[in-house]
Design brief:
Elements: H1 9-36, H2 42-65, H3 75-84, E1 93-94, E2 115-120, H4 122-137, E3 141-147, E4 156-159, H5 166-183, E5 187-193, H6 198-201, E6 208-211, H7 221-240, E7 245-249, H8 259-265, H9 269-278, H10 280-286, E8 287-288, E9 291-292, H11 303-309, E10 316-319, H12 321-325, E11 326-327, E12 330-332, E13 334-335, E14 338-339, H13 349-358
Parallel strand pairs: 1-3, 2-3, 2-5, 5-7, 7-10
Antiparallel strand pairs: 4-6, 8-9, 9-12, 11-12, 13-14
Helix pairs in contact: 4-13, 7-11
Length: 367
């Protein structure tokens, strides 16, 4: 039910658990107990176990030989899977434990061509395919400086209790990213994108936006909000003062459900049949054509802070994905068989390209 994004409610969950208990009881008395009541002849016991192992090994061997059930999936589903997982394979997203940007050829163009740079966390990484595509169409190079759970802030950072040292790694990474922009005058436009509300969504677990020199654990909730504003302003000012154009990207719509799961289920007859049989009204309430209903959208508690910090002025622009993806009917999560998300909050490559084509992220081009 979880895989199919079906919420059974308390009563439904209790019924489902009772069904598993009934299945367990039947398995115990009909299969397991008779099997364990082995005859005294040890050879017959060994034969039984050999048969049992063989029965278990055959389907395993078939799945290994055929590369699993995925091989039998339709080309359409394989294409969707490859697209939704594409951003996860991007080599330019630095992981936890890394403090320096990845500077390989796939991440830094190192050419004399005018370039667009993208700075941020995994949400920035998720939109990279779209910005790269637009940049290439306009004859521009593309540079990516991104790190997991590291928002595009300067002199401020994200404190994560279960990742000791991440706040220092993130602060160092963003300083290095700003230095890269400074050292590469061919970078004309810098796009700042992040999961801005990340620490607010997990405040109860101790997540905070903290000063790069301060104690993240001791940061209050009010200070955390002010630190996000301060860090974004510092980042914008530092890049703007270099004479570069700054584009601040509000976060993409985030959902209480998984759009990719819902989209894939609608392409798989068995999953779709189960969903419509068990929870037809819920499916209607969630999905409205190519949109997910407004009730599924997670409120963005950082929107006002980002908007205030990125006040549009000469050389600074604010772009809003919500404005182009959402209306009163809900937010786009697919078109046809193209799914825009890999999970509840990260865009797929197709979603990134769709969003980039709708937003004025890159306005310059090679002349």
């Amino acid at each position: 039910m979880h895989v199919l994004e079906i919420d059974l409610g308390i009563t439904g969950r209790i019924v489902a658990i009772l069904c598993t208990l009934v299945a367990g009881v039947l398995s115990y008395y009909v299969i397991e107990t008779p099997f364990r009541r082995a005859p005294s002849d040890h050879r017959r016991v060994l034969r039984r176990y050999a048969v049992a192992v063989g029965i278990a090994a055959v389907p395993l061997a078939i799945m290994v030989a055929t590369k699993g059930l995925y091989r039998s999936a339709s080309p359409q589903i394989k294409a969707v899977e490859a697209d939704t997982l594409g951003a996860l394979k991007n080599p330019c997203l630095a992981k936890y434990g890394e403090k320096d940007p990845r500077l390989g050829a796939a991440c830094m163009s190192n050419t004399n061509k005018p370039a667009v740079a993208l700075i941020g966390d995994s949400h920035a990484n998720a939109i990279a395919a779209g910005i790269r595509s637009i940049a290439q169409e306009r004859g521009l190079a593309f540079d990516q400086l991104t790190k997991s759970s590291c928002p595009a802030l300067l002199d401020y950072t994200r404190y994560i209790p279960n990742h000791p040292g991440h706040d220092r790694e993130c602060a160092h990474f963003m300083r290095a990213a700003v230095s890269m922009v400074r050292d590469h005058p061919e970078i004309r436009t810098v796009v700042l994108a992040s999961y801005w509300a990340a620490s607010f969504d997990e405040e109860a677990d101790g997540f905070r936006y903290a000063s790069a020199q301060g104690d993240g654990a001791g940061t209050t909730l009010a200070q955390s909000r002010q630190n996000l504003a301060n860090g974004l302003k510092e980042m914008i000012t530092a890049i703007h003062d270099m004479g570069r154009e700054v584009v601040v990207l509000q976060d993409v719509p985030r959902f209480k459900v998984d759009p990719s799961t819902i989209g894939l289920a609608d392409m798989m007859p068995v999953r779709e049949a189960i969903t419509r049989f068990i929870a037809p009204e819920r499916h209607k309430a969630l999905v409205r054509g190519h949109r997910l209903a407004p009730a599924t959208v997670v409120p963005d508690s950082a929107r006002g802070i980002v908007q205030a910090a990125a006040t549009p002025r000469d050389g600074v622009r604010l772009a809003d994905p919500v404005a182009v993806l959402c209306n009163e009917e809900g937010c786009l999560f697919r078109t046809g068989t193209t799914i825009f998300y890999t999970d509840s909050q990260h865009l797929s490559n197709s979603g990134a390209r769709e969003l980039a084509s709708r937003l004025p992220l890159v306005t310059s081009e090679v002349r």
